[in-house]
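Figure 2 data, in text form.
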Amino acid sequence: QLQLAESGGGLVQPGGSLRLSCVASGLTPDYRAIGWFRQAPGKEREGVSCMTLSIGSIYYADSVKGRFTMLRDAARNTVHLQMNSLKPEDTAVYYCAARRYSPCAGRVSPYEYDRWGQGTQVTVSS
């Protein structure tokens, strides 16, 4: 059974960088996309980016475009989220999730993802 585990969160100053990692243990070909999501206190979970695993195509939400980059290490079944130029509004718990049967579709809705990691806290503050 697929299990996802995030790591790499922490406290960083505005303008700084962090790299999150998501290890997908037991990944099978029916899982076609990996997405990154975040949830700030009192807010709904929002999609940040997603990658279609078979072709490597990636979608980014407007709020992170140009600052965040999704990378895949296929040999280690790991997907990274490189976050640069971080802002206080990026503060949230970040989750990775896997979508079964369908690719990344140009949007990242949490309702379309089937398996979730436990999350990692990212705090951007001076």
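Caption note: DSSP finds no helices and eleven strands in the chain.
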